[in-house]
Amino acid sequence: MTTRIDTRFAALKAEGRPALVTYVMAGDPDLATGQAILEALPQAGADIIELGMPFSDPMADGVAIQLAGQRSLAAGQTLRGVLGMVEDFRRKDETTPIVLMGYYNPVYSFGVEAFVKAAKAAGADGLIIVDLPPEEDEELCLPAMAAGLNFIRLTTPTTDDKRLPAVLKNSSGFVYYVSMTGVTGAVIKSRGAVGEAVDRIKSHTNLPVAVGFGIKTAEDAAEIGKHADGIVVGSVLVDAVARSLKDGKATDQTVGAVRDLVAEIFSGVKRARG
Amino acid sequence: MIGRQSILEADVDTTGINSLRNGPDDNGRFGIFGGRFVAETLMPLILDLEAHYRAAQKDPAFKAELNDLSVHYAGRPSPLYFAERLTKHLGGAQVWFKREELNHTGSHKINNCLGQILLAKRMGKTRVIAETGAGQHGVATATVCAKFELPCTIFMGATDVERQMPNVLRMKMLGAEVRPVTAGAGTLKDAMNEALRDWVTNVDSTYYLIGTAAGPHPYPEMVRDFQSVIGSEIKSQFAEAQGKLPDAVVACVGGGSNAIGTFHAFLDDADVKLYGAEAGGHGVDVENGHAASMTGGRPGVLHGNRTYLLQDKDGQILEGHSISAGLDYPGVGPEHAFLHDSKRVTYAPITDDEALEAFQLCTRLEGIIPALESAHGLAQLMKVAPTMGKDQSIVLCLSGRGDKDVESVGKYLGLL
Ligand SMILES: Cc1ncc(COP(=O)(O)O)c(C=O)c1O
Prior knowledge:
CATH class of the largest domain in chain B: Alpha Beta
Radius of gyration of chain A: 17 Å
Shape of chain A: globular
Bound molecules: pyridoxal-5'-phosphate
Oligomer: heterodimer
Strand order of the largest sheet of chain A: 5-4-3-2-1-9-8-7-6
Shape of chain B: globular
Strand content of chain A: 5-15%
Number of strands of chain A: 9
Distance between the termini of chain B: 46 Å
Number of domains of chain B: 2
Order of helices and strands of chain B: EEHHEHEHEHEHHEHEHHEHEHEEHEHHEH
Distance between the termini of chain A: 32 Å
Largest sheet of chain A: 9 strands, parallel
């Protein structure tokens, strides 16, 4: 089954540039502003959207995304609310792929079968669940695939050649290479090593490989985008939200701050292969 | 001779297919509980850890070194003590204490730390991290790290740093770096999140020395094995003293390491009743006012395993509350979740007030100041013992001593 993700990567391949994948936390800093940010992303240059599902205990995230999740939960976000955001988005945008990203417990609590059905119906295209390695595929990966959702897996510098096939086995949509051992928002130590890792993964799979964690500027995007089929930015966008707030509340700068930053990073993506 | 008895429960030939002692399976599951719910970065590490643990289990030199340390460094076996005045006071079953509080560093936590530090050494790790609630695990970790010359960083919730100050000072004196964690309510759950974040960042050098029988496989199994010496010793000591099995055994349950270590030897002895005391805080009816994950929670996935968790209707984890920092955790080890569902063990909540009362009673009647965690177990014993016959016996795992708690308890009692 072809998803919006497959279609989008195929189109960008023809265009000869990497995809810009943007992560925002659903409902940060409040539900209405979160929706406005989401809807502003494609115009600003986002090719694929990762929509964060907030969790009380984001073990793999750095401070920026931890705080974004807290703002979203404090604003009353729920998993059903996240799916509602996707549904509203789809009324205006039929083509931009949306990947829901988060942790397993809220999904497990919702009920796996009910969740994959509802996510598909809302117009989501894929899932990234940080704490579900291939060893736990029966939990959600297989039901998600059966429901027509891509299950996008993280591969990391600790995933060696012996392990890669197992990680790639039930992956679809794209492969997300985590550029470093660390949490979101940290700094990439060696761009060269990232390029090598991408080539290594590509020798194992035909899926597009997107690189995330530690990409902060147009410059980073242009560099990493030389090798990767996609680059993922998250913590800097979430930080832009945080910096635009006044007394913890959205201002008339908030949506614009994210839009401008996405546009700037997009300029790096465009010149990556130029 | 008990002192020579192997500390590794894996030594004991586990029985038939219906034994409750066979878990976990190859995927780290105890029934539906347990598993390996970790980020990909950590997955190769926990597979490697498991491989090293399997090798160590078969290595006589590993067992010999652990036994030697347990005897000469930690002071095992810990005594089994007949609490005569408490027995008279309660007027029912004979009350016995398994004196884990007499171990070096003052609690059962050292049993696990000695096992894991030897493993860390075998794996060639050069740095150790750990989470701690009451600080007992932090102190035990800092202790073995001092002895084995490894730098260590202890993550501790900011709230706990405050209420367990004596242990913070001990850790620092032992050379550990103590990192207070301010996220969330600043308790054990938050400390564990932060330790996991450190671990994914420092995968090559760092050994994560988890302090309880929870987390991703193989930790629940491994920590249980290192703690199972408690129950095996109780069994042989009680047999030596009374020529039979005790009728009931009680332990407090935070993550569940002292409890599973106490229960494991008895799981297949159907006549021995097993009781686990959860932290009932202000009462299990008070929303977010307790830490009784089995009585007041439902199954979910956190910190690498599926288990009972305190959570809201949307699957967000609650902070919970307990007067005892060591029990103030919204989850529990997966083997307890399994034993709860299978009804082999009876888990019951004990409120802050009940624990404080037990703390004082034990101190006055027996001259033993128990840890607030252990006082929860004692409070459960105080409910059960009077319903039993005078010819029956009940054993409490007195998991730790209460020196660390005298300031907080003093405040509650208005002594300060
Ligand atoms: C003395 C004592 N008992 C019990 C516990 C609870 O841990 P566990 O349930 O793993 O035994 C702690 C934890 O800090 C402790 O210090």
